[in-house]
Amino acid sequence: MNNQNLLIYQLPYLYEIMRELEDYLNYNVIETSNQKKLDEQIKSISNHLIISKKQIPNIKNFILINEFPIKISKLIEKINIQLLKQKFNDQSEIIINKYKINLNSREIYKDDKKLKLTEKEIQTIIYLSNSRKPITTDELQSKVWHYQKDLETHTVETHIYRLRKKFLNFFNDNDFIISEKNGYKIK
User: Fold this and answer.
1) Which of 18, 24, 67, 175 could form an S-S bond across to 29 if both were Cys, CB 3.0 to 4.6 Å?
2) How much helix, strand and coil, in percent to the nearest 5, is found in the chain?
3) DSSP symbol at 39
4) For residues 36 and 12, is the Cβ–Cβ distance under 8 A?
5) Is the dihedral of CA 42, 45, 47, 53 positive or negative?
6) What per-residue confidence (pLDDT) applies to 89?
7) CA–CA separation, 152 vs 75, rounded Å?
8) Of 4 and 78, which is predicted with more confidence?
């Protein structure tokens, strides 16, 4: 079953054409005739793309088709590209406790505040968040930095210290990464 949905808004002829092709496409085709119905479908259907001949305010995941006629192959190409972009953007956001990390922009969000992070900071946060138990300095050194376990360095401690300081100064959060006797963990 397809998990991507194509909402065709106020384009009955296009709906009929796409409906005939639906068996050959990677998405479900749904007709939407008015704004109220469109709003209901947006709320109830995840993973959707809307096609319309007019701009709809405050709507994301949208393709505007204002030049007719259009080749069906060109339209399908536009749809597929837009759906790929959406999938990429959806996969790029990770939620960790009360924060959201955007992997593309390398930023972490809380409420309306955004903090820029380095690649290693993101990797460290993700690695720590994927474990229920505290992670030792040696494990972080090996898994995130790819250093040998017996290498004498304070890289991990320095990065954790700086990361904790960023969270304290920017989000006033002193408990995001906590130290325990066995290592570090995300609270």
Assistant:
1) 18
2) 40, 25, 35
3) H
4) no
5) negative
6) 79
7) 58
8) 78
pLDDT digits (tens, 9 = 90+) for 29-38: 999 999 999 9
Q: Tokens 């990464």: give the residue.
A: 177
Instruction: Output the pLDDT for position 1.
Output: 45
Q: Which two tokens stand for residue 44?
A: 């109830």
Where do the DSSP E strands lie in 97-164? 99-102, 107-110, 113-116
Instruction: Specify the DSSP class assigned to residue 24.
Output: G
Per-residue pLDDT reduced to its tens digit, 39-52 = 888 888 878 899 99
What is the C-alpha separation between 21 and 40, in angstroms, rounded?
Answer: 25
Instruction: Pick left, alpha or beta for residue 111 (phi over 0 → left; psi -120 to 50 → alpha; otherwise beta).
Output: left
Write the CB contacts of 139 (distance below 8 Å, at least 6 apart in sequence).
Answer: 183
Q: What is the pTM of this model?
A: 0.60
Amino acid at residue number 88:
F
CA distance 76 to 85: 14
Q: Is 70 helix (H, G, I), strand (E, B) or coil?
A: coil
